[in-house]
Amino acid sequence: MAAYSSIPSSRPTRYSWETRWLHWVTAVLVVEQFAVGQLAWHLMDRAAPLRAFLVVTHTSLGVLLAAVFVTRMTWAMTGGRAIRFPVVTFQDRVARSVHRLLYLLLGGEIVFGYMARWSTGRPVIAFGVPINSPFPELLGGTHSFFSSLHHWNAWLLFGLACFHAGTGFHHLLVRRDRVFQRMLP
User: Which residues form the Cytochrome b561 bacterial/Ni-hydrogenase domain (predicted)?
Assistant: First the structure.
């Protein structure tokens, strides 16, 4: 246990409220989007009214997630009042790499979702407002390609997010090193 308690007391204790807010909004939306997307995908042609509602919900909240993602990336790149915890150990480097991969997968998921919808020639509808494609009509197999990328990337993203959450709980319950508390409200 002594190895875990050697964290210098001069380290900040938690991230800024903006960073924590963006983190938890992103987490809730990713879980919601995965659940709603999988349910809509499994319904396919059955329960058409429910599936239509799920697709509208998925696209609307997907646009909200895209806005949160852009805000989060802007916040991360400009620094804002975000606290930067030092990268010292191998585990710190792994954590930083996992965070970057989460950003990459989430950004890809958003792009694949837009492209899957736009490839059909239909706009993305967000809360009743159409977002038209900036592209001319795409080739026939493009929809299947982007839909497949969107589907499988969602599984990768969700799996890595579960790993991320699991390591957070490992820090909270096993290591008890207060790393988890950095992100609590």
Answer: 14-185
